[in-house]
Every structure is written in structure tokens, then in C-alpha cells.
Design brief:
This protein has 7 helices and 7 strands, in the order ααββαβαβαβαββα. By secondary structure, it is of the alpha/beta class. A 7-stranded mixed β-sheet has the order 2-1-5-4-3-6-7. It holds the Pfam family Redoxin.
Length: 207
């Protein structure tokens, strides 16, 4: 083989090797990892201030919670602080309204609960329980309805599970002063008098 032929063959091999190295591969390359979903921004203090919700109930010193809500601690919509539900509600009958910003019947019922709370005064604690993780939309919804009731965020539906309520909304949970469960109301109230009558029958408190 002549030297020129040898060098020509070497050149051909180099060209073929380069082409193979640069040739696009079908499905051999690892897939580009997906970017993690952006986490929701924390709710701004300004948005909480604009909602102007009443402060969440707090436990009196030495209060020990009991009943199905014992051990459940949730964040307060008004300021993000923690609320030990059973301890905070101890000593007074309570109405917990489970709702969500996307629930139409809930939007109809919340203003009724606001009016009932005004009538009941200190005789019954009325607390809203937002059963969805989106706190910002909960605050916006309450502001739009002009409902300033105290509320907590129950992203994992712990209250609903604790009282063994069905997966529907709205639901009202009536709790006795000793923390025991009086009634789970699985329907939308028709008016303030309906709320008052239901609470009176279950808790013995007339407002």
C-alpha cells in the first residue's frame, strides 16, 4: 500500500469516527429533569390586614382540650398564629363552619353565620374553617363577602376527618362546652333563624 493511500485511509477513518460521534441519538439521552413547581408565596400581612378578620379564639391559661378536636392545631387566618382548637374552644359551645373559597353554597351561608354570630354574642363561638390550602383566596373571598368572623386554615381537612363528616361543603360542626361533639350539620342553612334553631336544639343555647 502506498503512503498516499495509507494517509487517505486514515483520513477517511477520522471523518467517519467524527460523524458517528456527532450523530444525533434517538432516545438514549437522559430526559431533562422537570423544573420543580413554584411554591405559593406566603400570604402578605397586608392582605390579612385588609381582610380585617376577628382574632381567633385563644385558650385560657390551664385549659385542657378534649373531644374529637383534641390534638388539632391549625393556623389562624387573621395572623398565621397557631390555634389549639380543643383548648381554644373549651368552656363555651361552638359552631365550626367548614367551607372553601370555591364553594357556592358556602358563599351564601357565610353572611348568615356572620349575622348569627352578632346575635349570639359571647354565648356561642362561631369559627370558620377553610378546608382548602389556598389561604390567600380564602381571605379574598371573606373580604368580598364582608365576613369578618375568626377563621382557621385546615388544608388537610383534619376537622372533617376528626368528626367523621362526609367530603362535602358546607358542613357545620356543633361542639358542646365540654368539647364533645353535639351534631354535624351536612346541609346549607336557609337563614339566620334556621341556624339559631339548629344550635338551640343541639347545644341548648338560644340566640
Amino acid at each position: 500500500m502506498t503512503r498516499g493511500l495509507r494517509w487517505g485511509l486514515v483520513g477517511l477513518i477520522v471523518v467517519v469516527a467524527a460523524a458517528v460521534a456527532l450523530w444525533p441519538r434517538g432516545g438514549d439521552e437522559p430526559a431533562t429533569p422537570e423544573r420543580p413547581a413554584a411554591t405559593a408565596a406566603p400570604v402578605a400581612a397586608q392582605q390579612r390586614a385588609e381582610a380585617a378578620l376577628a382574632p381567633c379564639p385563644s385558650a385560657v391559661p390551664g385549659a385542657v382540650g378534649s373531644g374529637p378536636l383534641a390534638g388539632i392545631t391549625l393556623g389562624c387566618l387573621a395572623d398565621g398564629s397557631s390555634v389549639d382548637l380543643a383548648a381554644a374552644l373549651a368552656g363555651r359551645p361552638a359552631l365550626l363552619n367548614l367551607w372553601a373559597y370555591w364553594c357556592g353554597p358556602c358563599a351564601e351561608e357565610l353572611p348568615m353565620l356572620r349575622e348569627y354570630a352578632e346575635r349570639a354574642g359571647d354565648s356561642v363561638t362561631v369559627l370558620t374553617v377553610h378546608s382548602d390550602p389556598d389561604e390567600a383566596k380564602a381571605l379574598a373571598r371573606l373580604s368580598g363577602l364582608d365576613v369578618r368572623l375568626p377563621g382557621v386554615l385546615d388544608a388537610d381537612t383534619r376537622v372533617r376527618n376528626a368528626v367523621e363528616a362526609p367530603a362535602v361543603l358546607p358542613i357545620s360542626v356543633l361542639i358542646r362546652a365540654d368539647g364533645s361533639l353535639a351534631q354535624v350539620v351536612v346541609r346549607t342553612f336557609t337563614g339566620v333563624d334556621d341556624i339559631a334553631d339548629t344550635v338551640a336544639a343541639a347545644l341548648g343555647v338560644r340566640a
